[in-house]
Each structure stands twice: as structure tokens, then as C-alpha cells.
Amino acid sequence: MDEVQQLRAENKQLKRENQELREKLTAAEAQIKQLIELLGQNSHNSSWPSSRDKGRQKPKPKSLRPQTERKAGGQEGHEGHTLEFNPKPDFIESHRPAQCGHCQAPLPEEIAASKVAKRQVFELPPLRYVTIEHQAETIICPCCGEATTGEFPVDVSNPVQYGSQVKRLSVYLRNEQFIPYERERQMLADLFELPISTGTLQNFLETAAENVKPATEAIKEAVKKAEVGHADETGFYINGKRAWLHTVSTPELTY
Hints:
Blueprint lengths: L1 H38 L98 E3 L6 E3 L14 H12 L5 H12 L5 H14 L1 H13 L4 E9 L2 E9 L6
Antiparallel strand pairs: 1-2, 3-4
Helix pairs in contact: 2-4, 3-4
């Protein structure tokens, strides 16, 4: 009799353990399924931004245009786009012959050209920074004998400094073109022979941020009052670390 009771107790224990194992197996299978789905997610089949596709095999882009028998490239009869003559050139370089190409007689400057052939070149000016020296003059009044000194421009506050055009270009390269400080420093040195440090470039950006703060605050308040706003979260990497950019916008404004 004791043996039967022992077997019943063992059977009951085994049933309980079996049920627990079944529950754990079901939970594990659900977790595995979820992990497999996460591994297969990308910006095309989920709400993930495209920046999270890093390291994943991206599908080759497929053209939505229907197949035709036309060859790639410019089509026959297509109107091309070429550079047009500028009616007001900034500079004119004259190329005048010094002697006759037939008898080698000299051609004096007094002889006017019978015809002029023209060609234009769109060129960049010499890319080098210039130094502008501001001088505040002191003048003695001939009437009262007192001295009056002229005033420097408001933005010229130091003995030696960088000008507003340098600051504008720096902020543009950083904010609009996303060029890192070190590459921006090298670019200014290579193109303009301008000596500048990355710390100074960062100061330019911080000053610009302070200057536009009233405008950004006004945009923020306008977006908050909008009836409908669009919120977006975009992930990106800074020095290999995950970061997030959050924006709220309307059809006209973005904060």
C-alpha cells in the first residue's frame, strides 16, 4: 500500500514538472520567434529609420520606369543645356597680334581691330583671405580744439579677429554640409590659406546658435500651437555611438 501511494506521489510530481517545462518551452518559442522577427526588420518592413540598416545588406534599387527600346543617355532630338554668354563680363582680356601673320610687319596699338572673336571662361577668383585694417582717426576740431575719434564697426571689437564672412562660411559648412571641424579647418587652410583652429570653428557655431535662439524659440512656440504636428525620431552614429535626433514640424516650420 505504501508503494502505491509513493508511485502516485511521484506521478503527481512528474505531471507538475512536465507542465512547468511545457510552459517554459512555450515562452522560449515565443521569445525566439520575436527575436527572429527583429533580426529581419529594416527600414522597408518596419518603422525603423534607414540609419538603423547599418551593416545590413541593402537591396539593389529597382527602377519604376517601364522598359523601353531606347538606349541609355541623351535621346535624339533632346534639347541640351550649355553655358550661355554673359552680356556683362567682369573682366576682359584682349589678345592682340603684335605683327602681321603674312608679311611680319608690326601692328601698332593705334590700329583698331577690324573684328573681335569672343570666348568666355567661367572662373573662380583667387581663393585667399584678405586682411582688412580698420583705422579709427582722431581729429582736432579747428573751432574748439577738442579731439574727436571715429568709431570702429560694431562687429570689430578685437585688435585682430576673423571677419563675418569667415564665420558665415564656417557655420554653413558645418550645419548645411555636415563637415567635421577638422576637415573644415583643413578646407579653409587649403582653399584660402586661412590659419584657424577647430576650437575657433566651434566658437563660431556656438555664437551663431545664441544669435538665432530668439528665432528658434519663436518656431518652437508656433509648432506647439499648431493643430496638427509631425514628430520624428531619427537615429544616427557619433564616433560609433548611437544617438537620436528628435524633431517636431508643421508644413511650414521644423523645430
